[in-house]
Design brief:
This protein is an alpha+beta fold. It has eleven helices and 17 strands. The strands form two sheets. Strands 2, 3, 10, 11, 12, 13, 14, 15, 16 and 17 form a ten-stranded mixed β-sheet that branches. Strands 4-5-6-9-8-7 form a six-stranded antiparallel beta barrel. About 50% of the residues are buried.
């Protein structure tokens, strides 16, 4: 796991102490009055007037996260669910609300480089090979598992990424296992044409699944490492080389109820609805440019679940980080999709041959036009010769619509 003993990374602990102080002061201020309290103010109270600056009045440091919650209930949730150094399993269970305040410079190039791929492995025992069934979808696809596709070798995306039509990047997050990484893509927001701040990724990239909670310090970096620097070069790279389009913090996150209730770290549970959307904001609050404008475009998310036989090809894009890859560069795989069933009661998944590994999770699956997002990477086998993603239907659309309305 990557080391986190860096000056910039000590801020969460400092913030936790500050929040504890805020909670103590707030709780005291809300306490009952003494029956025999002196009606006259003390000399100290008379001489010290509030300045209106909460941090100054409470003696708190200047480098607190920018989005520190202000109400007592929110402060408690933020402290318990995101910053207090709980036992890690307990922390996940208590992080039931998504709070993700900006921490300047937390994700520096070195920390990004060291993040591990957040993947989900399946084996043959997780796959259902029963007869066709299911009540949703076309019927011809539901409940079917086609033969395992031949591996398709992942091809490197041509650099620089700023000159392509792929608004793809990396999603970083802190988890109980340490700093982790997934992939994601900018998607159009019908409520903000041309100025979307929405990112599509996998549910397991933002939430731990059944019995757990939301991850913290979730950010999106569009066109990460656009020049295709090697991992060795990234060790000394500047932020402008690694993230020239900025670091975008998730202001809100949503995933499907199915993933939250059924998702698991290993195997295919929850995979059929393993989808999430982030609403992001720039770390640099002086920049009013939208993510779509900054990234140079966005994909159209489609929730029409087209039949497998109607699709000529699907292209998965992402930043694989497990060997033989190292997470430094963007890759893609194109293949005619087949069908994969994990749970016959849930929609059948798309599957393609692909050698991408951990870190590609959450990356977009594009139709033959390259403009429509039909799925995101969810699972793959230990052998790393295929990938599968959910067919985005009504549940995924519900997630997308809800977060778009909140913008």
């Amino acid at each position: 796991m990557p080391s986190i003993a860096r000056p910039a990374r000590r801020r969460p602990a400092l913030a936790a102490a500050a929040v504890a102080a805020v909670l103590a002061v707030t709780a005291t201020a809300c306490g009952p009055e003494e029956d025999k309290a002196d009606d006259k103010p003390s000399a100290a109270a008379s001489e010290t007037k509030p300045s209106g600056d909460l941090k100054k009045d409470l003696g708190l440091p200047d480098d607190l996260p920018k989005d520190l919650p202000t109400s007592l209930d929110d402060l408690k949730k933020w402290k318990n669910g995101a910053w207090k150094n709980w036992d890690r399993d307990r922390w996940l269970k208590e992080a039931q609300d998504f709070f993700n305040p900006i921490i300047d410079d937390l994700w520096d190039p070195d920390r990004m480089k060291d993040a591990d791929g957040n993947d989900r492995k399946v084996d043959d025992s997780d796959i259902d090979n029963g007869e066709s069934g299911g009540k949703d979808g076309t019927g011809e696809d539901e409940g079917v598992t086609d033969p395992t596709p031949d591996p398709v070798k992942a091809a490197a995306v041509k650099t620089p990424y700023t000159q392509d039509d792929l608004p793809v990047g990396k999603v970083f997050m802190d988890t109980p296992k340490g700093a982790m990484v997934c992939s994601g893509a900018v998607v159009k927001d019908p409520r903000n044409p041309g100025k979307s701040n929405l990112v599509a990724t996998a549910g397991h990239c933002v939430h731990g699944g059944a019995g757990k909670g939301w991850y913290r310090n979730v950010v999106f970096v569009p066109d990460y490492n656009p020049g295709g620097l090697s991992n060795e070069q990234l060790s000394s790279a500047s932020k402008s080389d690694v993230a020239p389009k900025g670091i975008w913090w998730a202001k809100r996150a949503r995933t499907t109820d199915h993933w939250i209730k059924n998702g698991a770290e290993r195997g295919g549970k929850g995979a059929q609805q393993d989808f999430a959307v982030l609403q992001v904001q720039p770390e640099d609050k002086t920049d009013s440019t939208s993510l779509e404008e900054k990234a140079g475009g966005a994909l159209k998310a489609s929730f029409s679940t087209p039949r497998v036989k109607s699709l000529k090809s699907l292209t998965a894009v992402g930043y694989p980080a497990a060997p033989p890859f190292d997470g430094a560069k963007m890759y893609r795989c194109a293949d005619k999709p087949s069908r994969l069933t994990i749970d016959p009661a849930q929609p059948t998944m798309y599957r393609i041959g692909c050698t991408m590994t951990a870190g590609s999770s959450g990356g977009p699956w594009l139709d033959a036009s390259g403009t429509r997002l039909l799925s995101v990477t969810s699972i793959g086998p230990i052998t790393a010769d295929w990938l599968a993603g959910a067919r985005l239907g009504k549940e995924a659309k519900g997630v997308f619509d809800a977060i778009s309305r909140e913008g």
